Amino acid sequence: MTIISSQQFIDPEIVEEKMKDISGVAEVVIPCYYVGEIDGIEYAMQADGHHTLAAARELGIPYSFEISDDPEGLSGEEMLTIRWMDGDWYDVEKSDPMNDIICTVF
User: Fold this and answer.
1) From CA 86, how far away is CA 64, in angstroms rounded?
2) What pTM value is reported for the model?
3) What distance, in Å, lies between the first and last C-alpha atoms of the chain?
4) What pLDDT, in 10s, does the model give residues 53-62?
5) What's the CA gap between 31 and 52, in Å, rounded?
6) Can you tell me the distance from the alpha carbon of 98 to that of 79, in angstroms, rounded to the nearest whole number?
7) Does residue 103 sit in helix, strand or coil?
8) Which of 3, 27, 53, 86 gives 20 to 30 Å between its CA and that of 102?
9) Which residues contact 102 (CB under 8 A, 6 or more apart)?
10) What is the SS3 string spanning 24-38?
């Protein structure tokens, strides 16, 4: 499954605060919502924790994705339209918006 996001802005000051918050934890869990299958590929959307993920990467803390259904029952193209943030949809695991590395999906 491909984890995607459209939130590309990451505030370095927030990441610094998150680094203090998670320092010493064994793993960070990032919440995601199941999108469904689009063009033969199964997707989940990162719902929150963009700054926490950036902090975990900076600290070398392992992270995982917890996938659940959207609380409003959204899925597919409708979810992507309504939950869109500030940039193109990108592959979260191949991208690092904190360092301007964006691997666009669509």
Assistant:
1) 23
2) 0.94
3) 15
4) 999 999 999 9
5) 11
6) 24
7) coil
8) 27
9) 8, 87, 88, 90, 95
10) CCCCEEEEEEEEEEE
